[in-house]
Amino acid sequence: MKSGERRMLYDGPAHSRLWEKSAMGLLSKGEGLLLTDSEVIFCREHRGVEFEDISDQRTFALWLSERVRLNRNILREAAVLEALRVPGNKVVLSENFEPLGLESSGSWAMRWASDGHPSKAPPISEILWYESKDVLHDVNQDPEDILEGLLYWCDDVTRRGRLPEVLVIDEEQSVVTYRLNEADPRGDMKQPTEQVFEIISDNSVESLGSNGIFISDAMDWPLESIGIPLHGGRQLDITEAEIVRLMGKKTQSTAKVEISVSHLSTIIDDELGVLSVSASILLDLWMRGLNTRSGFKYGTAWRCYSGDVGDGHAPWLVVDPSKGGPADWAEACLSSRLASGVNKHWLYPIHDGERWRYLQISRPPSDSRWSNPKRI
């Protein structure tokens, strides 16, 4: 057995079996099995492998102290690897992608089911891991810089026909699993048109200050998804009022309005003003045929129905990134778990420069929730 900066060569009698049965490490030209630090820890604790130079607790402690000095993430990497491998998954870490002929990837690892193997089939999923305190939404940093990167990683993994999986580890070394995907929420409501905004703008309105506007006579209301019925009239919140005000101005100008999901950033010209982030997202949701209502009860900006309110539950909960969002992975996990508990999908809007896209962070099926053994 020899130690290197990031590898240990294990040449014991079990090295071939570790690769053939568990896809552990990397075979080294008949000399043995090259193991990363996290794989050494796993093999020692879960495969009963005896390493000559770290055969007792004292020598193991000295070795581990040195490895932590070289790689501060080693303890968390070991916990994540344990969460994946204890249920029987086979895992190839990123440093072994190229030697095993796997295509380059920005992932930390690739995963095979217990009955699969890297030598026989492509992986089922690709893995990233984060600490629960890792920032997702910082007032001093554009949150889309962080979450947009996750969306593009999700695109790449999905394009290869694999599941994008994220494992999150907390201060107690406890691991939970989430899946990412791009959602495409669609509903059956009519899209708003020039005529809709013109009809609404022609009504007499009363300002409710920061609560939006109230239209007392809404007998011939043109679109159910805009505003909420109240005392025979209609109340529009501040974001809905912004859209109606700007779009109403636009319809009354000489220019022709062309509402398009792919051109939301250009529907209001500089002379009349531009839609805020909140209004742009809300208009996009309306253009998708969704019926929007406040998501206050669920800790989001909107809950979205595919049809009329009352005809079914609201499948989607949508965040307004301009008003906040999950500060870190701990909050993102909590939000996703709460949404899952009420049979809803938690969505985070991301603008890619051309259109709004929706990143979904969700709990995987019960048989794919990788977590490490409980520690006392």
Can you offer a commentary on this structure?
This protein is of the alpha+beta class and 376 residues long. Among the domains are: 1-87, no CATH class; 190-288, no CATH class. Helices cover 29% and strands 21% of the residues. Strands 5-6-7-8-9-18-17-16-15-14 form a ten-stranded mixed sheet. The chain has a four-stranded antiparallel sheet with strand order 1-2-4-3. Strands 10-11-13-12 form a four-stranded antiparallel sheet. It is elongated, with a radius of gyration of 26 Å. It starts with a strand and ends in a 14-residue tail after the last strand. Mean pLDDT is 86; it is low at 254-272.
Secondary structure elements and their pairing?
Layout: E1 2-3, E2 7-10, H1 15-22, E3 26-27, E4 33-36, H2 37-46, H3 57-70, H4 74-85, E5 90-93, E6 109-112, E7 125-131, H5 143-159, E8 163-169, E9 175-183, H6 194-201, E10 206-207, E11 213-215, E12 228-230, E13 233-236, H7 238-252, H8 277-287, E14 291-294, E15 302-305, E16 316-318, H9 329-341, E17 345-351, E18 356-362
Parallel strand pairs: 7-8, 16-17
Antiparallel strand pairs: 1-2, 2-4, 3-4, 5-6, 6-7, 8-9, 9-18, 10-11, 11-13, 12-13, 14-15, 15-16, 17-18
Helix pairs in contact: 2-4, 6-7, 7-8
